[in-house]
Amino acid sequence: MEKAIIIEKMNVDTKEILAELNSKTK
């Protein structure tokens, strides 16, 4: 259960980072 929560948080962090990079590239 804990691993799933950690993975979910990592996915959110990754999405935020990708969104930030995308906004910087444009």
Plain-language structure description:
This protein is mainly alpha-helical. 92% of the residues lie in helices and 0% in strands. The radius of gyration is 12 Å and the shape is rod-shaped.
Gist?
The protein has 26 residues and is an all-alpha fold. It has one helix at residues 2-25.
String of helices and strands: H
- The coarse silhouette is rod-shaped
End-to-end Cα distance: 38 Å
Instruction: List low-confidence stretches.
Output: none
Number of helices: 1
Portion in helices: over 70%
Computed CA radius of gyration, to the nearest angstrom: 12 Å
Main sheet overview:
none
Count the strands? 0
User: For the residues shown, what is the average pLDDT?
Assistant: 92
The fraction of residues in strands falls at: under 5%
Q: Label the structural class.
A: mainly alpha
